[in-house]
From TrEMBL:
Topology class, membrane: Peripheral membrane protein
Protein name: ATP synthase subunit gamma
TM region(s), chain numbering: none
Compartments reported by the entry: Mitochondrion inner membrane
Keyword Ion transport found: yes
Primary location: mitochondrion
Family membership: Belongs to the ATPase gamma chain family.
PROSITE patterns listed in its UniProt record: ATPASE_GAMMA
Subunit structure: F-type ATPases have 2 components, CF(1) - the catalytic core - and CF(0) - the membrane proton channel. CF(1) and CF(0) have multiple subunits. F-type ATPases have 2 components, CF(1) - the catalytic core - and CF(0) - the membrane proton channel. CF(1) has five subunits: alpha(3), beta(3), gamma(1), delta(1), epsilon(1). CF(0) has three main subunits: a, b and c.
GO CC, alphabetical: mitochondrial inner membrane; proton-transporting ATP synthase complex
Length: 289
């Protein structure tokens, strides 16, 4: 009895080993549709890249002017083991390779040395990845990022939310973002934001004639926070658009290779079907004779 069941199971497993002509045709059609989508997304990313580069260059102008002040004042970030605020900036969109996961890895490596640091995730992608491993560190998340090129109004609104969270009380603030090294590569980087106390304690702060009652260090800290967020968002946006264009280009090439392979398989399967039909016709005709 069991021998018969075993033989039946073997026969059922070897009933079909080849795809039918209809299945190959449907598979080929779906791959062609995917290729059309990836090519379209590559074209869209290419058109947005020039706008992203313009936004990045504009933000760098303000960032360089801001950095010149801290260079003359000889301001340095605090290296002591104090409470730190980590701001991780990506976007809400995917289909751009490993750009989000690479930044998440950089933030996780940093949190290994600063396990008590508070994290603000700007962008749904970085928020989702950090919540998997460091949910207790994430204190706030901002979504709706990366749909268009960032503006100062957008970064100022985020900075206002951070100030409401108490960003001014942190002695050390670090911003993690993706830097577009070239058109085909990017690298996670970190830039500091100096607190008002750090600005006042700068060795070269006395070079400037600043009214002590005007709360200039606080205003300068708030402006720098918004300006650094804008620069990080602009550079991250440019890196993301470039990565998406490269990812869609690779996807289009892979789809083209699959189309070639499935076209050959389709033609061979079609020829086999025609041959089998001819054999059936000839066999039927010969049996009548």
């Amino acid at each position: 009895m069991f021998g018969k069941l075993g033989g039946l199971a073997i026969r059922q497993q070897s009933v079909r080993q080849y795809a039918t002509l209809k299945e190959v045709e449907m598979r080929l059609k779906s791959i062609k549709n995917i290729e059309k989508i990836t090519k379209t997304m590559k074209i869209v990313a290419s058109t947005r890249l020039s706008k992203a580069e313009k936004a990045k260059n504009t933000a760098k102008v303000f960032d360089s002017a801001d950095g010149q002040f801290y260079k003359n004042a000889e301001t340095k970030a605090s290296e002591q083991g104090e409470k730190e605020l980590v701001i991780a900036i990506t976007s809400d969109k995917g289909l751009c390779g490993s750009i989000h996961s690479q930044l998440a890895k950089a933030v996780r490596r940093h949190l290994e040395n600063a396990p008590d640091a508070d994290v603000v995730a700007i962008g749904d992608k970085i928020k989702t990845q950090l919540l998997r491993t460091h949910a207790s560190n994430v204190k706030m998340a901002v979504s709706g990022i990366g749909k268009e090129a960032p503006t100062f109004l957008e970064s100022a609104a985020i900075a206002e939310q951070l100030l409401g969270l108490g960003a001014g009380s942190y002695p050390k603030i670090s911003i993690f973002y993706n830097d577009p090294v070239s058109s085909i590569s990017f690298e996670p980087r970190v830039k500091p934001v100096y607190s008002a106390e750090t600005i006042v304690e700068s060795p070269g702060y006395s070079k400037f004639e600043i009214d002590a009652d005007a709360k200039v260090p606080i205003d300068l800290f708030e402006y720098t926070l918004a300006n650094k967020i804008l620069t990080a968002m602009a550079e991250g946006y440019a890196a993301e658009i470039s990565a998406r264009r490269n990812a869609m280009d690779n996807a289009s090439k892979n789809a083209g290779d699959m189309i070639n392979r499935y076209s050959i398989l389709y033609n061979r399967t079609r020829q086999a079907v025609i041959t089998n039909e001819l054999v059936d016709i000839i066999t039927g005709a010969s049996s009548l004779d």
